[in-house]
Specification:
Radius of gyration: 35 Å
Largest sheet: 9 strands, mixed
Oligomer: single chain
Number of strands: 9
């Protein structure tokens, strides 16, 4: 008996005989084999990784030298066509076309340069706003620079005349016209930069425009000699001035750029966006600096790129990937791949000593 008056537990030999021992089963824990990959993932990993996007071959139609050259060509031809009917070759009987020809050519070239990039980006609203701004700027600069070009041209002719040049067939006379007409390209560059709201873009536009217009001006007289003068020579000559100005602007801008985004995938594959501003907006709004269309996953104000000195930071409010990883803020390095919806961009910067 125990102290609490309870019977003690008794186990008999008969009780032990009824106990059945089970055979041990297989070990449910399987040891990893050599070479097996370790996984530390979670159910959110798939959402944090960018979908695979194949790099596409860019179209030359989206290159700045091409669409600016085309804009210069169309603008010059349109300006010539509107004024040719009022133009006469005799200085003693000048008509309205003689006074309006060059300002009209410059104005429509400026309209083309102002709207070309927005047209390529499919931003109709931005293209119309820029074209509307380019009209008064082009008209004013057209007349101002026509006066300035005539002054420079007469001075140049006086200089080459003093050297014994008495014929327009002499290459020295062609150079004189080219130097004078360079100012027309300056007008185009000024408007190109103003509508783009960038002082640096204005500088590049002026340099490229002056080079292109000078080249166009130097071939104007040879074209007149080949075509026997008259309406055809003016049409061809102004067309070449427009093309040369736009192409030169595109090449100079591309050659002197510091930081830019090159589109590797999406509807704008092959286009480069030069980062001029301290804050560049990216989104589905047409007035965004980088307008991304045909993708419902892109927010109106999806992301922005902020530049402060040598620091370039991507700031994202919508789903954005850099190097395949989802980010909200990231300091960009040369070569980074940025993905927004169906678009992919390669961030590039020019290394300086």
């Amino acid at each position: 008996m125990t102290s609490d008056n309870r019977e003690p537990l008794r186990i008999t030999s008969a009780d032990l005989a009824e106990v059945v021992l089970r055979e041990p089963g297989p070990n449910p824990i399987v040891a990893p084999r050599p070479g097996d990959a370790k996984s530390y993932g979670s159910i959110t990993d798939a959402a944090d990784k960018a979908p695979a996007v194949a790099e596409e071959r860019g179209s030359f139609l989206l290159q700045g030298w091409f669409y600016l050259g085309a804009a210069g060509l169309l603008g010059a031809i349109l300006g010539w066509a509107l004024c040719e009917r009022g133009f006469v070759d005799s200085r003693s009987a000048e008509r309205w076309g003689n006074y309006w020809m060059m300002p009209a050519v410059i104005t429509f070239m400026c309209i083309g340069f102002g709207a070309a990039e927005s047209i390529v980006e499919r931003s109709v609203r931005k293209a119309l706003l820029r074209a509307a701004l380019a009209v008064p700027l082009g008209v004013v600069l057209g007349f101002v620079f026509q006066v300035l070009a005539n002054i420079i041209y007469n001075v140049d002719l006086g200089l080459v005349g003093a050297m014994g040049v008495q014929s327009y067939r002499n290459p020295a006379a062609w150079i004189a016209r080219g130097i004078a007409w360079a100012v027309f390209g300056v007008a185009g560059g000024i408007v190109y930069g103003i509508v783009g709201q960038s002082g640096q873009k204005t500088k590049y536009g002026i340099i490229g425009g002056a080079i292109g217009a000078a080249i166009g001006g130097m071939v104007f007289d040879p074209i007149a000699m080949l075509t026997k003068g008259g309406s055809l020579s003016r049409a061809v000559g102004f067309a070449l001035v427009g093309v040369a100005t736009g192409v030169a602007m595109g090449f100079v801008e591309s050659a002197l750029k510091d930081r830019w985004l090159y589109v590797t995938s999406g509807p704008l594959a092959g286009k480069q966006f030069i980062l001029y501003k301290t804050l560049t907006s990216i989104g589905s709004l047409q007035n965004s600096d980088i307008y991304l269309f045909k993708d419902s996953s892109i927010a109106p104000q999806h992301a922005a790129i902020a530049i402060s000195g040598s620091r370039v930071q991507l700031q994202a409010s919508g789903q954005t990937y850099v190097g395949g990883n989802s980010v909200q803020a990231r300091v960009l390095q040369d070569g980074d791949l940025i993905q927004i919806g169906k678009y992919a961009f390669r961030y590039k910067e020019k290394h300086r000593a």
